Amino acid sequence: MNTQVVSRERSIFLSKLSFPTSSSDSRLQDEGNNSDVEGKVKNRLLSMWNNVKYGMKLKTNFSKESPVWLLGKCYRRIESPSSDSTELGTDVAAFQSQSEIASSDDEGFEGFKKDFISRLWLTYRREFPILNGSNYSSDCGWGCMLRSGQMLIAQALVCHILGRDWRWQPDHQPTTRESFIEVVNHRKIIKWFGDKPSRNSPFSIHTLVALGEASGKKAGDWYGPGFVAHLFRQAFKRASEDNYEFDSLTVCVAQDCAVYIKDVMEECTDKNGKWKSLILLIPVRLGAEKFNSIYAPCLTTLFSLKQCIGIIGGRPKHSLYFVGYQDDKLIHLDPHYCQEVVDVWAVDFPLTSFHCRSPRKIHLSKMDPSCCIGFYCPTKESFFNLIEIVQPLVIPPGRTDSPGSEYPMFIFCDGYSRDAQLSPKKLPPSELEYSMDSSTDGDDMGTEAFEIL
């Protein structure tokens, strides 16, 4: 059925390709136009096939009983918490104030919907300006990790400029100065990711591809999560040259699963001794070829931290932006839906394509072991609070007194990286590999009883 749809649409598009053939001059004149039209047809067919293959489902089922964690916020049915709860992530609640927990709980699942929809959704686009040195006017089929990275960074910018508690209200007209400023800043953040080769869009796919060329990457190549983390570090340094708003924000990328504290302190302290807000990106590999189940509770617990801005990873060769979890499934935003390019520099450009109304889920066992974890620390105190909280959480449970304690997800180290000779983190021993139950069905969506959107 899907093949028939694609074939039928392809015939419709190709039927429009008729060019004058009355003379050799007209053929030569139309050669360039013919090539342009054929390129657009190819992009449209590819994006159409991609949307059939990865088409967004409109309904997602969530359990009524289990809490949902979304980037440091917990949503659940309004009820008294059980003292003997064993839910993943509840141990982190001890580090958070009761007011923070109560404010999100009181909203219940309606609060989760508002929170999820407010995250920026950056997907494949088609018919944007051709990427320099290529014939690509769409990133459909190859740019998913770049888009996932954009969403991760966009979340950090939302926290930095609008705050974690900001919510998008699509039908709301601003009536106060504060709400008007929020609307302006919301659009400004989206503009920074606009699909055009402009220094006014410092995190566009054009900028990222151009930065990747220095390392041998080009448009059409597949980008790994660690490589994308370094691209954004470069993009931020470049952006700060043109925009004062990036002077108070910096990106640090961990080396070999190790965060060197003095490196971070040096990077985050400006020439006046003032702290810059920190986006900390930690590329990790949680297994050899498949995700190792010993890291499952470590990974999900990270979504309970208020500093967490998500994880980029996905299934093998299928990047996703993970923002939370419920039970043993990760909640994510999928960049694979191909949409028409939006001119974000037009007055009152439409916002609906930058916000997803359909959360999706994937079982932990299907996750690719290669991923990049993101944290946002607005203050020095927030950074040291993260160090204190996260170190015991990244060690697989029950292994603190065994050889497995050598295999945390990542570590914090005193000193500078230049003074250390740290080899890459060893992978877990083979007897611990691949113990995740692989009997799950092929559907990434949840099958519980609560329909949320």
Give the tags.
453 residues; alpha+beta; nine-stranded mixed beta sheet; 10 helices; 15 strands; disordered N terminus; disordered C terminus; Peptidase_C54_cat; protein-phosphatidylethanolamide deconjugating activity; protein transport; protease
Structure, described:
It is a single chain. By secondary structure, this protein is of the alpha+beta class. It has one domain (63-435). 34% of the residues lie in helices and 15% in strands. Strands 2, 3, 5, 7, 8, 9, 10, 12 and 13 form a nine-stranded mixed sheet that branches. Strands 1-15 form a two-stranded antiparallel sheet. The two termini are 26 Å apart.
The oligomeric state is single chain
* N/C terminus separation: 26 Å
As a percent range, the share of helical residues equals 25-40%
* Overall pLDDT: 80
Region (Disordered): 424-445
EC number: 3.4.22.-
Pfam families: Peptidase_C54
Keywords: Autophagy, Cytoplasm, Hydrolase, Protease, Protein transport, Thiol protease, Transport
